[in-house]
Amino acid sequence: MWKKWLKVQQMQETLVIFRRSLLYQTKEFFQNSTLHGVRYIAESGRPAGEKFMWFCFTSIGAVTALVIIMSLWEKFQTNPTITGLDTDFHNQNVVFPTTVVCPEIAFDHDKSFEVALNKLANYDPSLAGYIVPFLELLPSLSFETFNEAEVIASSVDMEGVNDLTLRQWAFASVINCEDVLTECKYRDEPIKCCDAFHPVYTEHGYCFGFNSRFISTEDGDVKSGPPHDLYETDKKWALFFVPNSTVKIFIFSNEEYFGQDFNPQIEWSEGEVVEVRISKKNTYTTDDARQLSIGQRKCIFHDEVKLKYFPEEYTFSSCMKECRMKKAINLCKCLPSFYKPVSSVPMCGLDELSCLSDARNNITNIKDCMQCELSCSKTVYNIEKLIKSGDRADASGVLVEFLTWPIIRYKREVLFGWVDLLVSFGGIASLFLGFSLLSGVEIIYYFTLRACCMVYKNRQELYEIEQRIQCEPPPPINMSLRMKSYAAPIVVMEQDPLNDEVKTLVNNPSDNPPDYEEFGSRRRKADKDYSTFAKSLYKTPKILPSYADASNSTWEFGQYLP
Q1: Least confident of 180-194, 240-254, 367-381, 521-535
Q2: Sign of torsion, CA 69 73 75 80?
Q3: CA distance linking residue 446 with residue 460, whole number of Å
Q4: For residue 271, how far is the Cα from the chain centroid?
Q5: For residue 295, with 0-12 CB atoms within 10 Å meaning exposed, 13-18 middle and 19 or more buried, which class applies?
Q6: How many CB atoms sit inside 10 A of residue 331's CB?
Q7: Are strands 266-268 and 247-252 parallel, antiparallel or unpaired?
């Protein structure tokens, strides 16, 4: 018990000594610091009013510097890049945009009836007639039609429907390419439509895509071949095709994955002539932007983030599609049929249609996919001119053509990087406070290493200082800026030193204090003359005056003035 109490006492004493060491080092730091105005705050002999004045000046400078530094930091976090035109650029070849044609009727009735009769209705024509609507709905299955598919499936008894996935049943009843597209031209040269347009099965249903990034099969999505290019010397920078029924047309970059994030730009009906003039705008980001975070530059490089289900390269559309796939897996423990199959996740069947219908809003809510940023290299195709006319069955079709040859490219580069931020911080701190990196090192040095070393090396001195300060009464506080009068005996000139007549007024001995009421006027005059004489010493050489009596000199201060 005694040892424990002794240990506590030693710890308390050490804390007191360490506190005194910190106070001592604070005074030392203030007196020796290179920061502007700090030394006057702790300098001995300075009036309290003057110390407060310098404290206010230093505080205003620190607050101003802090406000400007915070504004620079906010600029660095929110807008550190700039986008401008890339002048050193010329296109030799251009990738034609992906053009997706989605028919309004995506099923083949004869194929659907044959599949229903042979595989699901046990060769019962009447039962097959009830199953056909379900099979015809699968090629256009989407988040909006899950509820309808559930109602149809629950009203009909379909034996063997679980033998295949819904994706496989959909591909068994889809419409043929020849029934959707009848005539096609590329670069003003005839091409086979079904060799150029490949099946694409997504949230928009079963479609056919020209220059698509992937091709859909009943077993999954496979990567397509090299994209179709255009050259500046080509006869025509255009794609022409004639649909056979009402279709929706999507135009977007070949880099993207087609899905729910895209809206149709054109809706075509039979007998219409549609001419679309497009322009291409490409934006890329320089590599020096990699020093910034994703949130600062607001884009992701193609090799910066590797997606789980689309590992080839990052794009905004693939990130959004993967986000919806993950939410469907978390909520319903399966993947809808219009997504590409994943080996470790089962495909949704009839039993999961109700779950998908209920979770539709959660799955399609983009607020849960805020981690998806735009790609740092992206291409956008804008429709500059759209001409649409009807009642021309002899010349109907859709023409997608570049308005002009693409010659514009945009470059995003760093406007305010880490080096610029460091230089700005240093300039502001130096301007308002005289602060530098070594000043920060000094602060750490004074209040850590130096304070701790003083506790152990100069412990006795700190203890004596602590005892002396505790015994001394607190000093009086002088709030004025007026110069102090000296209480020691002084000799004051009633006339100018250049004159021969000198009369001295000497203070009485300490045991018989002077009557200041009697000599008040002379004292005030002496203070005034002394102040005038003290000010003259800052302008003239300081020479010890010779008018004091050498044998009995009472002049004690001479040139040693404050």
Answers
A1: 521-535
A2: positive
A3: 20
A4: 51
A5: exposed
A6: 16
A7: antiparallel
Identify the CA nearest to 508 among candidates 524, 498, 519. Answer: 519
Give residue 155's pLDDT. Answer: 83
Structure tokens at 64: 């101003």
Burial of 90 by CB count in 10 Å (0-12 exposed, 13-18 middle, 19+ buried)? exposed
Distance of CA 128 to the CA centre of its chain: 58
C-alpha span between 245 and 396 (Å, rounded): 11
Distance (Å, rounded) from C-alpha 54 to C-alpha 65? 16
- Which residue is it, tokens 């590992």? 311
The structure tokens 């009735």 sit at 109
* pTM confidence score: 0.69
Pick from 303, 309, 294: nearest CA to 374? 294
Q: What is the pLDDT of residues 520-556, one digit of tens each?
A: 555 455 555 545 544 554 444 444 444 444 444 444 4
Residue 206, helix vs strand vs coil = strand
Angle at 188 between CA 182 and CA 191, to 5 degrees: 40
Q: Give the confidence band of 400 by pLDDT, cuts at 50, 70, 90.
A: very high
Burial track 125-140 (b if 16+ CB lie within 10 A, e otherwise):
eebbebbbbbbbbbbb
Whole-angstrom Cα distance, residue 226 to residue 53? Answer: 75
Expressed in angstroms, the distance from the first to the final Cα of the chain is 56
Q: What is the CA radius of gyration of the chain?
A: 45
User: What's the rounded Cα separation, in Å, for the pair 140 and 143?
Assistant: 10
